[in-house]
Write a structure and sequence with these properties.
18 strands, membrane, three-stranded antiparallel sheet, 12 helices
Length: 523
């Protein structure tokens, strides 16, 4: 029998012996005496399961079936068995079962919130929610055409469903009955049935663009000539399910999309008043301020635990790779971790939100994101240049890796890919560590330092934009009689920097809800 556990969304998400050694040897067991994650049920086990890379959800298995997850609000919900309900599975455990048992994307869907499910030949968008009994589920899936792309941003996107077209649509048998029984749909004509309108939670103003704006942005980044308005209804009814990009997209393009803050648009988070004098795109929770309103929701979000791009190989099934980025996309470096490895790299598998660890990529990138955010318009080009150089080299090296793997047996290929992934992670960690030292050297105490290897360094003030000075009350108003002592100002500036970094640590440690690691799950 296979145990089904009650998965936690907070760290640690799982403690036990069922997935692999890193789940039993917690790095911070001296901080808290963790107990095993409770088992709430069992299902029959299959004779053989597949190894896979695991984050909060399953990522990619040895057969190159890959998942992406986007949490979506629904009109129905269910309690787990352990809390007085009837639900045995949540989407986390469902994703793991799919990884363990599926050799194709279609198998992952039919064995099984929103998942994107891909393999070497197909890509699907899969929506699932509890039914009205709380013991089963309603689900639907739509295939993405081979030459097109689809985007899910925390909201359902499947609309009409032709259940007769099984090549492009799949659905649970209760799809229409549950909607009609609960008054979500009038039941008159299945041709008029709309999955999103029937089952999605409606976002009220002012956050109605929380999801749709990101869909608009990715579509128009992929195809700038696409005539889409950034302003639409709550379900983006005038947007297509999928669209054809202007050119063939590669991993580097998807990395670029994930780092976006609407730069160059009317919604640019690096140029509005809230970004401050140095263009910080991060918008924190307002806390107890109680003000009504809504900040724009960026694609690259400061409180991200990880993001990734999956790449499957049609030519060699051993070459499935996950380009994995710890921490927020704009402050990360995407590291190639191959799906067929014996173990994931130490810098990507270890780590705790309860304790800073400079041996982990999450914390190395969190340093870059938090410190770099203080002077974002100055530090961002430096961070992008470093991550871009690493990723360009890694993408170029992928061809050489593929050529070498072609000469190896399956067993030798696993050993080689394990070491290749470990070396790539070690280089990324060394690069991030050195980059933080560079940022602190070049940007501190209100100055930009250059030519550090020359006889005389260049030192220039960071300065402030005029609009910010005016809004901050920088004028000759006699009511603002303030005397500034240069030495005291320098000390105060240094203290602000130090406290700012410390505050960033607190955000990363206590607000992030997901363990920042990727693990290999044994077969």
């Amino acid at each position: 029998m296979r145990d089904v556990v009650l998965v936690k969304q907070s760290y640690p998400r799982y403690v036990g012996d069922g997935l692999g050694p890193m789940y039993t040897r917690l790095d911070d067991d001296d901080v808290y005496n963790w107990t095993a994650t409770p088992v709430i049920g069992q299902i029959p086990q299959v004779p053989k399961t597949y190894a896979y890379l695991d984050g909060v959800y399953g990522v990619m298995n040895e057969h190159q079936v890959a998942l992406g997850e986007s949490t979506c609000g629904a009109r129905l919900w269910a309690k787990p068995l352990s809390q007085g309900g009837n639900a045995l599975f949540d989407i986390v455990e469902l994703s793991r079962v799919a990884m363990e048992r599926a050799r194709t994307a279609r198998e992952a869907i039919t064995s099984g919130e929103t998942l994107t499910v891909t393999d070497t030949t197909e890509a699907w968008i899969f929506h699932i929610l509890p039914d009205d009994t709380g013991a089963s589920a309603v689900w639907a899936a739509q295939r993405v055409p081979a030459t097109e792309m689809a985007v899910v941003a925390n909201q359902f996107v499947i609309r009409s469903i032709d259940v007769r077209d099984s090549a492009n649509y799949l659905a649970s048998t209760n799809l229409f009955d549950v909607a009609k029984r609960n008054g979500f749909w009038d039941g008159d004509d299945v041709e008029d049935f709309d999955f999103t309108a029937s089952y999605a939670m409606v976002r009220e103003h002012p956050n109605q663009y929380y999801s749709t704006r990101r869909v608009w942005r990715v579509f128009t980044l992929a195809n700038p000539s696409l005539a889409l308005s950034p302003t639409t209804d709550v379900f983006a009814s005038d947007y297509p399910f999928s669209t054809r990009p202007a050119a063939l997209l590669g991993p580097a393009d998807l990395m670029r999309f994930q780092r976006d803050h609407y730069e160059g648009t009317a919604f640019d988070l690096t140029t509005d008043k809230a970004s401050g004098p140095y263009g910080n795109p991060d918008r924190y929770s307002t806390g107890s301020a109680g003000a009504d309103g809504q900040f724009e929701r960026a694609i690259s979000l400061f409180r991200t635990a990880y993001s990734y791009v999956t790449q499957a190989s049609v030519l060699d099934p051993r070459l499935g790779v996950v380009w994995f980025g710890h921490y927020a996309p704009h402050a990360t470096t995407y590291v190639p971790i191959y799906a067929r490895v014996e173990a994931t790299p130490n810098a990507t598998a270890r780590g705790s939100l309860r304790r800073f660890d400079n041996r982990t990529l999450f914390w190395a990138n969190a340093l870059l994101g938090n410190y770099g955010g203080l002077f974002y318009k100055l530090t961002s080009p430096v961070i992008r240049a470093a991550s871009g150089a690493y990723e360009a080299a890694a993408l170029a090296a992928h061809a050489a890796v593929a050529a070498h793997v072609a000469t190896l047996s399956d067993a030798d290929a696993v050993t080689y890919l394990t070491q290749t992934s470990a070396d790539a992670a070690a280089r990324a960690l060394a690069s991030a560590t050195a980059l933080f030292a560079t940022l602190v050297t070049r940007f501190h105490d209100g100055y930009v330092v250059s030519n550090t290897t020359a006889d005389e360094m260049g030192i220039a003030p960071m300065g402030y934009p005029q609009w910010w000075l005016r809004s901050a009350g920088y004028d000759y108003n006699d009511g603002n009689e303030i005397q500034v002592v240069a030495g005291a100002l320098m000390g105060a500036a240094l203290m602000i920097v130090v406290l700012g970094v410390a505050a960033g640590f607190a955000v990363g440690r206590y607000i992030a809800l997901k363990q920042p690691s990727i693990q290999r799950v044994k077969a």
